[in-house]
Design a protein that fits this description.
binds flavin mononucleotide; two-stranded antiparallel sheet; single chain; NADH Oxidase; 16% strand; 4-stranded antiparallel beta sheet; 6 strands; alpha+beta
């Protein structure tokens, strides 16, 4: 990533200071270190309408494919959606699918209530969806896709772009119609839908439990 210290503006939130758009060129300032990105990344659920620039997305996808994969198979395929109406259509379908599958489980009831809210968009009105899928049905293909997703999310955090995995969108994105529209081969599976965009609010920190270490053998 490029660092242009001259582009630094000493105003706004840390995230706002991270990315300054100059036409199509984006200058990255105050890039985080890896430790900071790991410890500050949050699921972002509020976005500005600003579209993530193609050059930035390409850099993030280049980072995603640095993820490890079983046998170095690199089985991931990426579909990028920046069409707001297409995203709204998928969101509406995803909501209907969740409602149709509602059970008596209280959590399921809670989700269904959320989905009945007309204003709710499962993609949080983010400008961009990256759907990561695979045509390989190898044992670790799904794990590989999620590793690419995690790498993408950390790379995005590093440059002030918010992300959130959207499990609710998995069923709709795996319909034959959506897969065809997105360019995935019919036998492919869409594994990891990730939304990206410029955050409109700083997410609250989410508590983490200490690592549950169940054993630690030493000679
Ligand atoms: C497989 C997976 C699916 C998820 N699906 C959704 C989703 O559909 N909607 C959502 O708002 N967040 C979703 N999340 C985000 C999690 O809720 C979030 O990562 C978790 O609460 C921890 O918060 P943090 O990411 O801010 O640390 C998903 C996360 C994962 C890993």
């Amino acid at each position: 990533m490029h660092v242009h210290a001259s582009a630094a503006a000493a105003v706004g939130t840390r995230r706002e200071r991270c990315v300054l758009a100059r036409g199509t060129r984006v200058a990255y300032v105050e890039a985080m270190n890896l430790h900071e990105a790991i410890h500050t990344r949050r699921a972002v659920r509020a976005y500005t309408p600003r579209r993530v620039e193609e050059s930035v997305l390409r850099e993030l996808l280049s980072a995603a494919v640095c993820a490890p994969s079983a046998m170095n198979a690199q089985p991931w395929l990426f579909a990028v959606v920046q069409d707001v109406r297409q995203l709204k259509r998928y969101s509406d379908q995803a909501k209907a699918m969740v409602i149709a599958r509602t059970s008596s489980d209280p959590k399921s009831q809670l989700y269904a209530a959320r989905m009945r809210d007309e204003q709710f968009n499962v993609f949080y009105n983010a400008s961009t969806l990256v759907a990561i899928g695979t045509a390989d049905r190898a044992t670790y293909s799904e794990a590989d896709c999620w590793l690419a997703a995690a790498t993408l999310m950390l790379a995005a955090c590093n440059v002030g772009i918010g992300t959130c995995p959207i499990g609710f969108a998995v069923p709709v994105l795996n319909t034959p119609e959506a897969k065809a529209e997105l360019g995935f081969p019919p036998g492919a599976a869409v594994v990891a839908p990730i939304v990206l965009g410029y955050p409109s609010a700083e997410p609250e920190p989410v508590p983490r439990a200490q690592p549950r270490i169940v054993s630690w053998s030493r000679p």
